[in-house]
Design a protein that fits this description.
The structure holds two protein chains of two kinds. Chain A is of the alpha+beta class. Chain A has six helices and six strands. Helices cover 35% and strands 21% of the residues of chain A. In chain A, the strands form two sheets. In chain A, strands 2-3-1-4 form a four-stranded antiparallel β-sheet. In chain A, a hairpin with a 6-residue loop joins strand 2 and strand 3. The longest helix of chain A has 13 residues. Chain B has two domains: 140 residues, Aspartate Aminotransferase, domain 1; 225 residues, Aspartate Aminotransferase, domain 2. In chain B, helix 8 links the parallel strand 5 and strand 6. The chains are: A alpha+beta, B alpha/beta.
Chain lengths: 162, 401
């Protein structure tokens, strides 16, 4: 268990680490690491691995929006069923159940504003349980998943020091 | 231009130029160098500490503090030492804030030495103890440590070097450059000699938080040693605060008072910005510090394994963020190895002899570098060692014919 926790902490920061590297870093065998990773993947504790990309810098920025959604919960399943339905649209990046004045926070990423509008009017708003939506467009990203988009902290140390 | 050297004091003239400085000049002229030659964390000071400093500046914290340092900081230091070592130092009389441990070393030496007194300095070690001794008109006496003993100071070596003029023993553990530590048992071996020969100890514990698989032991906690020890520590390494220049000295009120006499006339006080940041570090910095230490530990294991796989003998360092592999297998001296490695593979390491004669045959590699850089440096060192080993084998073969 302790190994698995350490593994998760390492991979949360850097998913490119190889089992060989991790085994050395933690002082355990490579087999133990491979088995632990397999277990964590099988149990869906590690859901996947992806890169954090500055698409804007690449030149294909697209449009992201956070949509506050009020929904009617359903008997027995509460908010889960509608949340799962919304989650399955490929434009949808994140779905959270929130406390406060609305229920679901839905983050979408589309090619342009028209696409976002179409998603809301054609797919999201017509859902039977959805009562209302309020859309906020993302203007600029500063930090995502622990990475700063413009990190001004370079290695400024002297190359040799006592 | 005529030389002004004759105006320089004999004491200063007598101090040899730093071996590191020379190497720094070599490295500074090059580009694309991967450096394992630094002596500081690769982390920037944690944000909450920097932020606390901004806030203090906004509120006008720009003035002198008391000579001993801000009372709140001394209080935090006192609680910290009680928490970590179980020692109680009175914040009013037994703790002073210094401009880094460097100032602490200087003050302690000047407060304790009479001209001609001998200072016992384990080698290899940080570069300032011997010059600091000479500036205080003392005489530096090196104590050899060796890879065989994982660079611990042994009882025999200490006993062999003591003379009637011996006055101070410096204990620089966890050690820069070797990464060696002294456990409580190792320190206990020395205590009766120190007491019998009436030595004072300056214990430089700046790397105390950076130990791996072992807990730091301070000689001040051992029987009879509390009053004989000037304990020096600071914020540079544990909290990644090298540029803030904040350290502290703890000891008997008479000693601290003597050190403060020098401090008040030479330094007045440590910069207030650094002191404010240090308060924040001690109050809220431990979780972040633990994360950094864990990170160093990961990289430590990678570099030790990497160097051993290359065929360079390397004892497992249990402190600081340095490894100290032997390069004797290549047939090169420390300096040759470091200079050629820089020239041929653009990797900077520090020759072991820069830290004293017993560092000859070793190099210091600092693993406070990104994992990517460590692995790339290891690849380059491997290429380099392979080349020089086969060269050496050819030369040996030719000689025997």
């Amino acid at each position: 268990m302790e190994l698995e926790r350490k593994l998760l902490k390492l991979y949360e920061k850097d998913a490119t680490l190889s089992p060989t590297q991790v085994a050395t870093m933690l002082g355990v065998s490579e087999d133990a690491v491979r088995q632990a990773i397999a277990r964590l993947e099988r149990d869906k504790i590690i859901l996947g691995y992806n890169a954090v990309i500055n698409w804007e810098k690449w030149g294909e920025d697209g449009v992201s929006a956070m949509i506050d959604v009020k929904v009617t919960p359903e008997r027995e399943v509460g908010f889960d069923r509608i949340a799962e339905r919304i989650s399955r649209f490929p434009e949808v990046r994140c779905v959270y159940l929130m406390s406060g004045t609305y229920d679901l926070s839905v983050v979408v990423h589309c090619e342009d504003m028209k696409d976002v509008a179409r998603f809301i009017s054609d797919k999201l708003a017509p859902l039977e349980q959805v009562q209302s939506t309020v859309t906020h467009f993302v203007l600029k990203r500063y930090k995502q998943d622990n990475f700063l988009f413009e990190d001004k902290e370079e290695d400024r140390r002297l190359v040799v020091s006592p | 231009m005529s030389s002004m050297e004759r105006y320089i004091s004999k004491t200063v003239q007598h101090i040899p130029p730093s071996g590191i400085r020379k190497f720094f000049d070599l490295v500074a002229q090059r580009e694309g160098v991967i450096s394992l030659g630094v002596g500081e964390p690769d982390f920037v000071t944690p944000w909450h500490i920097r932020e606390a400093c901004f806030y203090a500046l906004e509120r006008g914290y720009t003035m002198y503090t008391s000579n001993l340092g801000m009372p709140e900081l001394r209080q935090e230091i006192s609680s910290y030492l009680q928490r970590r070592l179980g020692l109680y130092y009175d914040p009013a009389t037994s703790i002073m804030v210094t401009v880094g441990v460097s100032e602490g070393v200087d003050l302690a030496l000047r407060a304790l030495l009479n001209p001609g007194d001998e200072v016992l300095i384990p080698e290899p070690s940080y570069v300032s103890y011997a010059p600091g001794t000479e500036l205080a008109y003392g005489k530096a006496v090196p104590l050899r440590t060796s890879a065989r003993h994982e660079f611990r100071l042994t009882r025999d070596e200490l006993a062999a070097r003591i003379t009637p003029r011996s006055r101070v023993l410096i204990l620089p553990f966890p050690n820069n450059p070797t990464g060696g530590i002294m456990t409580r048992e190792d320190l206990l071996e020395l205590v009766d000699i120190i007491v019998d020969r009436d030595l004072m100890v300056i214990s430089d514990e700046i790397y105390s938080e950076l130990t791996y698989g072992a807990t730091h032991a301070s000689i001040a906690t051992l029987p009879g040693m509390f009053e004989r020890t000037v304990l020096l520590n600071g914020f540079s390494k544990a909290f990644a605060m090298t540029g803030w220049r904040v350290g502290y000295a703890c000891g008997h009120p008479d000693i601290i008072n003597a050190m403060n006499k020098i401090h008040q006339y030479t330094m007045l006080c440590a910069p207030i910005m650094g002191q404010v940041a240090a308060i924040e570090a001690l109050r809220h910095g431990e979780p972040e510090m633990r994360r950094m230490v864990e990170d160093y530990d990961h990289r430590r294991r990678i570099i030790v394994k990497g160097l051993r796989d290359i065929g360079l003998d390397c004892f497992e360092p249990r402190g600081a963020f340095y490894v100290f592999p032997s390069v004797q297998a290549t047939g090169l001296s420390s300096e040759e190895f470091a200079e050629r490695l820089l020239e041929e593979e653009q990797v900077a390491v520090v020759p072991g002899n820069a830290f004293g004669a017993s560092g000859e045959g070793f190099i210091r590699c600092c693993y406070a570098a990104s994992l990517h850089n460590i692995e790339e440096a290891l690849n380059r060192i491997e290429r380099f060692v392979r080349r020089h080993r086969s060269g050496q084998a050819r030369a040996a073969g030719a000689g025997s014919r």
